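Changelog-linked ticket: iron/sulfur cluster example.
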Amino acid sequence: MTDQMLPRRSILKGALAALASIPVVAVVSRVEAAPAAKLDPNDAQAKSLHYATDTTKVDAKTSPSHKPEQKCANCAQYQGKATDAVAACPIFGGKLVEGNGWCMVWAKKA
Ligand code: SF4
């Protein structure tokens, strides 16, 4: 079968499908480029895991497992470099946490 033998309807369907996909690709690209939101320390999950934006201000009475050297930047969950001021944390759905922050599920980065 040659191109000339393709029914006009098939060609038209293909062209319409290609056109219809362009806006979707553009929207998906914009969504992927959108910066992640910063974790609100007053968020219910943040509070339940005792998230603090500053590890030096963690209350030892309410978070007895906390050690002064523990912070998001040296946690296994921190998605950025140790020098990044903020980075995504999968524990909080990929929201940005402070490199100097802390929460009770902190685990040493290997
Ligand atoms: Fe920070 Fe780790 Fe808690 Fe995420 S899991 S908020 S990186 S201490």
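Closing comment: Example verified and attached. The chain has a mean pLDDT of 84. The radius of gyration is 24 Å.
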